[in-house]
């Protein structure tokens, strides 16, 4: 997981910095307890090693100090502890040797299994769901993001009632499993949690209405929308920064971006789009988070074009791509719809030269309609011009081509043409007349014909 860093570390507020220091001193053991049957069935399309690497990456995303990581192949799942007694005894020895304070188990544990493991190992235990919730709590910056994380975390804690939930004290995400009231192990008040959930849901409705108003105001601007989606750490935010010259947090860590960000981008022939960056997807995302973040993904559902950004240099690129497509399907998005989804093969700079040349050749087998993937490097800028052209091609699949001839000195006509269509090329004759090659949206063809008559012909 020690891959290239895309940007400097984020600037955290005082609470986040305190959490980071706490995490850096929290010696953590990571265990991937994967059923043996998964290997035979190629579950998730991933090797056990790749799944463990991802779990370690999740832990490092909140700065935990990883002292040991291992795969535990399970012949059978134990209802009481998930893993067997032999593995528990082996973990006790490792925990004692490393003086570990936290065990991360890369699976979804039931409340009983979590409690039993904590008692048997005398150490705090969190599962994959709990860890992802903590990451989201650290990353959320907008009011909507913070509310969504809090709602999801409350739903998670409500089922456990093991310890009080720190969000009720601090009203923010992060490290409910490491310190503060969570250490007291007092029983959570179910009624208090339920009341808080109702208040959050009410607040979220208000935030959604505000977002709806913002979206409505954007809809009044004649700009199509383009959304970036992809597996976490695929490089979406780095690509967003490259396309928009913005400074969105872009870091080689999982879930660097949680809150949606939008910017206006100019395409090669003057057309403008609204580009939206979104939260990264991941396999086995807790269902409570999928529901809580549905509003965040509304920009994806509404987008005219969806850019599926893939880390093409990753060993699990295919499996990650399948996970993203599955989530898009769950959102009701038809990935096969013509012109809707465009694959962006990112991190070309990390590929061996021969593989980069092969993929580049594959991506160039396009007829110019944006139907093929585009190979890019958001870091170096390779392929960005082709990507912008492909986006433009996708957005203009139903546009028609025309030629317009204007007399010398027809400045008003020239200005009208530039305002009403995309000028693909301009040629000037010796007599001063101008010939324009235009790409015209269907709803504007009639307007141009009325204005120019026989001077406008189909190309």
Please report the total strand number as a whole number.
14
Overall shape: it is elongated
Largest sheet composition: 6 strands, mixed
Tally of separate domains? 4
How far the N terminus sits from the C terminus, by CA atoms, comes to 52 Å
Spatial order of the strands in the main sheet?
6-7-5-8-9-10
CATH architecture of the largest domain: 3-Layer(aba) Sandwich
Radius of gyration, Cα only, in angstroms? 26 Å
Q: Spell out the CATH superfamily of the largest domain.
A: P-loop containing nucleotide triphosphate hydrolases
Q: Which structural class best describes the helix and strand composition?
A: alpha/beta
**CATH class bucket of the largest domain:** Alpha Beta
CATH fold field value of the largest domain:
Rossmann fold
Range of helix content: 40-55%
Average pLDDT across residues? 80
| Beta-strand share of residues | 15-25%
Identify low-pLDDT runs.
Answer: 1-12, 162-175, 178-188, 255-259
Q: Count up the helices.
A: 17
What is this structure's SSE topology?
Layout (H helix, E strand, L loop, with lengths): L13 H11 L2 E9 H6 L6 H13 L4 E10 L10 H14 L3 E4 L5 H11 L2 E4 H12 L3 H16 L8 H4 L19 H30 L5 E6 L5 H9 L16 E6 L5 E6 L9 H6 L5 H5 L2 E7 L5 H14 L10 E6 L6 H11 L10 E2 L8 H12 L4 E7 L4 H10 L1 E7 L5 E7 L1 H11 L3 E3 L1
Q: Could you describe the 3D structure shown?
A:
The chain has 459 residues and is an alpha/beta fold. It has four domains: 14-134, Rossmann fold (3-Layer(aba) Sandwich); 140-206, no CATH class; 221-395, P-loop containing nucleotide triphosphate hydrolases (Rossmann fold), CATH 3.40.50; 400-458, Alpha-Beta Plaits, CATH 3.30.70. It is built from 17 helices and 14 strands. It has helices at residues 14-24, 36-41, 48-60, 85-98, 111-121, 128-139, 143-158, 167-170, 190-219, 236-244, 287-292, 298-302, 317-330, 353-363, 384-395, 411-420, 442-452, and strands at 27-35, 65-74, 102-105, 124-127, 225-230, 261-266, 272-277, 305-311, 341-346, 374-375, 400-406, 422-428, 434-440, 456-458. The strands form three sheets. Strands 6-7-5-8-9-10 form a six-stranded mixed beta sheet, with helices on both faces. Strands 2-1-3-4 form a four-stranded parallel beta sheet, sandwiched between helices. Strands 12-13-11-14 form a four-stranded antiparallel beta sheet. Helix 14 (353-363) links the parallel strand 9 (341-346) and strand 10 (374-375). Helix 6 runs antiparallel to helix 7 and helix 7 packs antiparallel against helix 9 (190-219). It is elongated, with a radius of gyration of 26 Å.
